[in-house]
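Z., the sequence and structure:
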Amino acid sequence: MSWRPQYRSSKFRNVYGKAASREHCFDGIPITKNVHDNHFCAVNARFLAIVTESAGGGSFLVIPLEQTGRIEPNYPKVCGHQGNVLDIKWNPFIENIIASCSEDTSVRIWEIPEGGLKRNMTEAVLELYGHSRRVGLVEWHPTTNNILFSAGYDYKVLIWNLEIGEPVKMIDCHSDVILCMSFNTDGSLLATTCKDKKLRVVEPRSGRVLQEASCKNHRVNRVVFLGSTKRLLTTGVSRWNTRQIALWDQEDLSMPLIEEEIDGLSGLLFPFYDADTHMLYLAGKGDGNIRYYEIGSEKPYLSYLMEFRSPAPQKGLGVMPKHGLDVSACEVFRFYKLITLKGLIEPISMIVPRRSETYQEDIYPMTPGTEPALTPDEWLSGVNRDPILVSLKEGYKRNSKIVFKAPVREKKSVVVNGIDLLENVPPRTENELLRMFFRQQDEIRRLKDELSQKDIRIRQLQLEIKNFRNSPKNN
């Protein structure tokens, strides 16, 4: 795709990115060095959460948004996992509830106190066990409260009903590790990308695969639904190892509508879509820039707008929900950029330049708020409903009255679709077998060293006994 902007009639043609000043950043944060391809950051209108580097388990920080500046090294953490934390997501309807998943095979739900943490939090309000291997992704359902999706390295997607604290459905159509999950607007469809180089559109309640694309020329990594346009956008790699994006019709994945090469860099491309402005943002892992485009309903579908550039590479990006933006500054999107080398979280605001200081209705249409449209039972019974929309005209700050209540339950076997998930362990991958082999070889060497040391010690004792017996005093 040409880097030159296509000048045409568009209210977003002059959108520009503005990085926050140093005093409005979050400094001194030991950002995780984990190489897992996730953002390691989640943000809502009240809190910023960042996965941190820690010994002896996994932890993440939760910082109130107004608490900018330098964060003390002994700042309280959420540190209940026994393995590295791989993904964190805020509940879209209850702003102090966050889900995390980890290498310890568990998914945990945490309730953050008002005003943030005062001491380390080690006890989750709910611990969810159902995966037999590490869990790499968690996603909240976009319209239903207390429905959570988790994807593990056992190639399964589990759907959790948090009102009972159990998995109620299992999607078992993948043959390798799931890389990404994305919902359409009402949450009736789930798109996934997988390490088996396939893009799938799944009906989540039945687990039925509606559409499937075998991407041979375009190896997909990430996918995002483009709002209610019935289209999908994927990022991936071409057969010549250049970074690509592809646009698909969700009802026919036989061929992409368009494929465009971006550049020859190697970092993973993260796509972000704003359904209100029809803008697509592309940010590469390890890049310093963020490209943005406008999505149209007719060819060429993608129109390049501009690029935000920065010399500092990004490890991941958190995205502020729409109701947390500053409408008085015509802010239409906000990133929280993780800069590992500096231990810095830098907010980046995407702004539409307007001279008038009044509310701009054309760039702020009705948008999903913090009220769920469905209960878990309604959604599981087959009901679909669009999100409840709100206006940002008065600066939407209404807190949801929903309170999370953790179910009381005993730890037991987890049976879904007639399969005990904790007993049904899938075959190990080649990498896991190699790691097991090397660990066993290390253990054998260690035991051999111990035996040789003991053998040497026995010989020394035997020699001492012999010398003692042959000494003149004992004759």
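The CA atoms of residues 19 and 348 lie 4 Å apart. The longest strand covers residues 331-339.

Let me know what you think.
H.
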